[in-house]
Amino acid sequence: MKLENILKAVSPLQVIGDENLEVTGIHMDSRMVKNGFMFVAVKGTQTDGHNYIPKAIENGATVIVCEQLPEKQETHITYVQLADTEDAVGKLATTFYGDPTSKLDLIGVTGTNGKTTIATLLYNMFRSFGYKVGLVSTVCNYIDGEAIPTEHTTPDPITLNQLLGRMADEGCKYAFMEVSSHSVVQKRISGLRFVGGIFTNITRDHLDYHKTFENYLKAKKAFFDGLPKQAFALTNADDKNGLVMTQNTKAKVATYSLHTMCDFKGKVLEDSFDGMLLDINNREVNVQFIGRFNASNLLAVYGAACLLGKKPEDVLLKLSTLRPVCGRFDAKRSPKGYTAIVDYAHTPDALVNVLETIHEVLRGRGHVITVVGAGGNRDKGKRPLMAQESVKRSDKVIITSDNPRFEEPQDIINDMLNGLNKAEMKKVISIVDRKEAIRTACMLAQPQDVILVAGKGHETYQDVKGVKSHFDDKEVLDEIFKGEQ
């Protein structure tokens, strides 16, 4: 694409050099630059892309987009100076990849918990309706049936537009996307057009990055502030900040709830570890999901599908066929007669939701054993809270490693234990080795008991000192179950 056409998306302060160049690619990482590429220098949280301009030129960049022009300018390079490259990179990428969100309907899902479940279930539902559909999620990205591995909840703007561009080119009608708070602040979604936004809930998370809960809330709200008036904004009326999210949006606001008057109202009529009977807008439906938080997630899915024009009766029929997302309240029955649940819960609130759901279904007929850890190099303030919530709602807690990253696992465990008093400590043992911790929980469990293995969910690795080694909670449980037969 001609440089002059790409630059129509932004307002350059100045352009030095040839605007008639053919640009063959665009990147923010100088290592990924090839001949004829545009390199966009962005001041990131870790490094400043301006320091890598010489490397980008060495690798073949012919266009440099920057906020500060280098002192020494190469005569064969075109320099584009902008006031804010972080904001511009998404707009440049959207233009370069053919404005993909003008060719498909993009729906964003944001909130602390439930994003993956809601986005994935909508993806599965609309595929079952017969559409080609894309998914951008924590677990995996999909272009219809093709899996594209992912490393971040929301990719960088160039990767994201490239992915959405492929979805559009391959005929996807819809794309469902998790929108993280980081991606809003870092303007990774800049330039994208959403036809709808869904809010799940908001609780303490990512304070290592946002510093305060207010900043975190503002990041989520900014997504809804940016929706166009033709879009819908579907919000959870059961969350105290649900209506705060949509108070300044131009989009059409709709609500869902298990407890209050709303557009999409639900009620749990029956529940067990095999599923639930729900009432949704005065119609009953059996679903293969467990727990009130999943009932809330399913209401969001139902509401979004209806807002996208699907008939309520058709949506209910599809809801009854959907299955839980990998690693999200994933229940397995042991040969010994206890139930093991693998869940991604890695915040205090998520642990509360999962453990309270277990108690609602268990109804005192067995004990609850929780295996839990906390990730390294992340918000340390939530560690003692996670231990406290686990102990309050469990008969036994085994504190272990999650992804220690560059911290010592025992230091993380100690941070969690620091939140407990002497009486609470009597319920707790700590085992650094996660596999051994899960094995110990299984040895302690009796028929009717429930083991919650929390924190990693769908993940198939342990991140230790920068090395990701294979580790899958579900595989560990399968191995233990085989030994019980």
From TrEMBL:
Its cofactor is Mg(2+). Residues 109-305 form the Mur ligase central domain. Residues 327-457 form the Mur ligase C-terminal domain. InterPro entries: Mur-like_cat_sf (IPR036565), Mur_ligase_C (IPR004101), Mur_ligase_C_dom_sf (IPR036615), Mur_ligase_cen (IPR013221), Mur_ligase_N (IPR000713), MurE/MurF_N (IPR035911), UDP-N-AcMur-Glu-dNH2Pim_ligase (IPR005761). Meso-2,6-diaminopimelate binds at R378, D402, N403, P404, R405, G455, E459. Gene3D superfamilies: Mur ligase, C-terminal domain, Mur-like, catalytic domain, MurE/MurF, N-terminal domain. Pathway: Cell wall biogenesis; peptidoglycan biosynthesis. Carboxylation is probably crucial for Mg(2+) binding and, consequently, for the gamma-phosphate positioning of ATP. It is an enzyme of class 6 (ligase). UDP-N-acetyl-alpha-D-muramoyl-L-alanyl-D-glutamate binds at S30, T153, T154, S180, Q186, R188. The keyword Metal-binding does not apply. This is UDP-N-acetylmuramoyl-L-alanyl-D-glutamate--2,6-diaminopimelate ligase. It comes from Bacteroides mediterraneensis.
